[in-house]
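The records we work with from here on pair a chain with its fold. A complete example follows; check for yourself that the lines match position by position.
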Amino acid sequence: MDINYNGLQIREIFHIEFLRAFARKFKPTFYALKGGVNMRLYFKSIRYSEDMDLDVNTVDIITLRDAVMKIITSVSLTNELKSFGIEEIHPPDIKKAKQTSTTQRFKIHLITPGNEDLFTKIEFSRRKNSGNSIVESVSANVLRQYKVSPLIISHYDIDTAVVQKIDALAGRNVVQARDIFDIYTLSTQYTVKKACGFADVSSKILKTACENIFSVGFRQFRDTVLSYLAEEDRAAYDNTDIWDEIKLKVHEFICQKTQ
């Protein structure tokens, strides 16, 4: 089979097939996909993700650690992914990996036949009241490009995804362009309830998020978002005026309609 996948797609197929193996071991009530991969697989995002984030509950540290390591080091997974351009999967040094009651992190290196080293990270968090998770099929539009079978997993719904992104926009030490871009992506798929706005977001967080929108310049957008788009999308968005318009749309979405 000819290998035509780029680094962004190779990471994505690894995420998808990891999730497939993970879903065989854990019930949907035990976990929920979130962040950029959730955006890609369920909310039509054109932005690929280098890393993948999930929330987990009930599963203890050792059980999760051993299950994840078993998946990552599985010969069957490596063999399955060779046709997609992954020759080897280098697992994390589990003795050095962060493994706490709140966060479990697995840093992985995907090695291509040309010896390219593609880094990715899978991070699990344990947080209460993280939102509403639902069990759905991954978008066929995403799976079709890899010609893989359907996949049903647990992920956060759009209401939760919007709240999480607003929280991220307000709460990071350094404001990230990707949070603004992701909210822009969600804005046409979500209806703001005018009576209460974003009911699950405090007025303080919303105010901070609104203040942060215009603090991110085009250079950061170019370096941290454009590089994670497909080539044709990258060309379409590589413009300072477009970035300014995105920020205006996000401000209108989360700020003006809730005043």
